[in-house]
């Protein structure tokens, strides 16, 4: 049963493949149709011309022979009759005329000595009669020509169809007085010959059309096979297989196209390899620089922490003249520390080494902890029901929320409203501020790295990486962050995360491949997720 179903599926797939190759928009079908149309036009034209020429030749030859014989019989036999013949004489003469080589029917019409019209037909009383002669022909035959014409009466003929049978009907009048003669000759043998010719020409046209379709199919296959190979190679190249090359044979245009494709693919592979090499070198430089900076930063941070404690103690051990400088050193050291940590995080995302450490998280509790750790409880209005659980990375969720809320507080102003809802297997977190909103020209760039909307603030506590890192953390969960302006005023950042963010690439990976001093380790100060305030506006 399985084999039967498999065979049926294979047959169906094969049929679909053939039909797809002959779809109405395919080049193959258009080539076949063009070849067929050209062949049909040529065959029909040639057949029509041949049929018309043969028809005219056959009818003209037959008609000429019959009319000559009839005219000769009228001169020889009907001309020897008296001016007022009897009906018997007409019958006898008509029979003699009908026995000529052409075997036509004859009707003689005359007037006897009493002036009565008498008829003589070669077929007897039930044979050829005057009613079988068209009235227009009778009128033309009996009309005498004006002028000095030596023949006052001419021979006239006409083709008629009676009960589906074609006939040639002719008539003339004996010169100098005498009976009027009419002739009728069946053209059925000639019609059968012409029908046979028409059938032969039709069959020849059909064979020509079939032959043209076969030739078109062969030509299309010859032309389209390289095009198909080129399409397959282009798709492979688009999928990233830059070593794809075409086999080149011949010297025609398609061969030139294949050579051009190979040269383009080779140049693209070289360019991509160079760019990848430079990108790897840049990432290594950033990573190495970040690691190298952490060693002196650790010592500097320890010293600045001591200085900061002295400043907070107000013991007077620090000269008031240098106190502003000390505070500047502490602030810039913290900023440099955050920048190095952000650069390391970005490097992990670029290298693809960032992994999730999943846990069952109560989203409301996690956001509350994030706000509480940064002393934002008075400035943030949280609207979230407890009990909304999700399989997320708590540290990365903390980084996302710290950047979004801190960004809203810095540029939008309090109160900042954070709402959490669950719908269709995903958690939706909206962070809205009450500021002036985000300019429309800035919206597409708020998540770009190192982007700062205000050129007047090139130097600030932010590095331009905060929202970019937040977006990367959302992506690694399989989620998304969008930025927009609320109709009621202010900016709205919406975070959407799946309730089960299991890593599809490596679900068994349970830890981040980080250094011992990585900001993701437990015990790290809350300052590691201080938002990048200059990022959004």
From TrEMBL:
Lipid bilayer topology: Multi-pass membrane protein
UniProt xrefs under Pfam families: HAMP (PF00672), HATPase_c (PF02518), HisKA (PF00512)
Cellular component GO terms held in the UniProt record: plasma membrane
Ranges annotated as biased composition (Acidic residues): 502-512
Domain Histidine kinase: 288-501
Region (Disordered): 495-537
Enzymatic reactions: ATP + protein L-histidine = ADP + protein N-phospho-L-histidine
KW ATP-binding (keyword) present: yes
Xref: PROSITE patterns: HAMP, HIS_KIN
Positions of the HAMP domain: 221-273
Compartment(s) of residence: Cell membrane
InterPro entries: HAMP_dom (IPR003660), HATPase_C_sf (IPR036890), HATPase_dom (IPR003594), His_kinase_dom (IPR005467), HisK_dim/P_dom (IPR003661), HisK_dim/P_sf (IPR036097), Sig_transdc_His_kin-like_C (IPR004358)
Organism name: Streptomyces antibioticus
Keyword Kinase tagged: yes
Transmembrane segments: 31-53
PANTHER family membership: HYBRID SIGNAL TRANSDUCTION HISTIDINE KINASE C, TWO-COMPONENT HISTIDINE KINASE
Enzyme Commission number(s) from the entry: 2.7.13.3
Keyword terms: ATP-binding, Cell membrane, Kinase, Membrane, Nucleotide-binding, Phosphoprotein, Transferase, Transmembrane, Transmembrane helix, Two-component regulatory system
Name the record gives this protein: histidine kinase
Chief place where the protein resides: membrane
GO molecular function terms attached to this record: ATP binding; phosphorelay sensor kinase activity
Positions with biased composition (Basic and acidic residues): 522-537
């Amino acid at each position: 049963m399985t084999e039967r179903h498999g065979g049926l599926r294979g047959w169906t797939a094969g049929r679909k493949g053939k039909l797809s190759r002959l779809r109405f928009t395919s080049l193959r079908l258009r080539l076949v149709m063009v070849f067929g149309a050209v062949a049909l036009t040529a065959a029909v034209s040639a057949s029509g011309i041949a049929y018309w020429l043969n028809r005219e030749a056959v009818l003209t030859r037959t008609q000429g022979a019959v009319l000559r014989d009839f005219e000769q019989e009228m001169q020889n036999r009907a001309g020897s009759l008296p001016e007022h013949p009897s009906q018997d004489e007409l019958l006898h003469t008509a029979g003699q005329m009908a026995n000529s080589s052409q075997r036509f029917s004859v009707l003689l019409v005359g007037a006897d000595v009493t002036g009565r019209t008498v008829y003589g037909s070669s077929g007897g009383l039930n044979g050829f009669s005057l009613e079988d002669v068209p009235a227009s022909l009778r009128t033309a035959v009996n009309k005498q020509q004006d002028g000095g014409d030596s023949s006052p009466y001419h021979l006239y003929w006409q083709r008629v169809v009676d009960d589906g049978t074609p006939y040639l009907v002719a008539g003339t009048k004996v010169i100098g007085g005498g009976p009027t003669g009419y002739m009728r000759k069946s053209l059925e043998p000639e019609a059968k010959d012409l029908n046979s010719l028409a059938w032969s020409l039709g069959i020849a046209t059909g064979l020509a059309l079939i032959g043209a379709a076969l030739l078109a199919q062969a030509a299309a296959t010859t032309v389209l096979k390289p095009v198909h190979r080129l399409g397959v190679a282009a798709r492979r190249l688009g999928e990233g297989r830059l070593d794809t090359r075409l086999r080149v044979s011949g010297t025609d245009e398609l061969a030139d196209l294949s050579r051009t494709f190979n040269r383009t693919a080779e140049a693209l592979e070289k360019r991509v390899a160079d760019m990848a090499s430079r990108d790897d070198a840049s990432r290594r430089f950033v990573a190495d620089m970040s690691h190298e900076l952490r060693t002196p930063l650790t010592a500097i941070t320890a010293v600045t922490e001591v200085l900061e404690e002295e400043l907070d103690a107000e013991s007077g051990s620090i000269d008031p003249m240098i106190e502003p400088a000390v505070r500047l050193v502490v602030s810039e050291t913290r900023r440099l520390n955050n920048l190095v940590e952000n650069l390391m995080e970005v490097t992990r995302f670029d290298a693809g080494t960032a992994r999730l450490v999943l846990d069952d998280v109560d989203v409301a509790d996690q956001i509350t902890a994030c706000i509480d750790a940064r002393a934002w409880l008075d400035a943030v209005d949280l609207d979230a029901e407890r009990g909304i659980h999700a399989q997320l990375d708590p540290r990365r969720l903390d980084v996302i929320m710290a950047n979004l809320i801190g960004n809203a507080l810095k540029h939008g102003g309090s109160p900042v409203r954070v709402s959490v809802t669950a719908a269709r297997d995903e958690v939706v977190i909206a962070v809205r501020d009450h500021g002036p909103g985000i300019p429309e020209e800035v919206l597409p760039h708020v998540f770009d790295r190192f982007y700062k909307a205000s050129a007047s603030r090139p130097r600030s506590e932010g590095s331009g990486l905060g929202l970019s890192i937040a977006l990367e953390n959302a992506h690694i969960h399989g989620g998304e962050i969008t930025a927009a302006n609320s109709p009621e005023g202010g900016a709205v950042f919406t975070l959407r995360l799946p309730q089960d963010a299991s890593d599809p690439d490596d679900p068994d990976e349970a830890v981040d491949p980080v250094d011992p001093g990585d900001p993701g380790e437990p015990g790290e100060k809350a300052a590691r997720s201080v938002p990048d305030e200059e990022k959004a506006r």
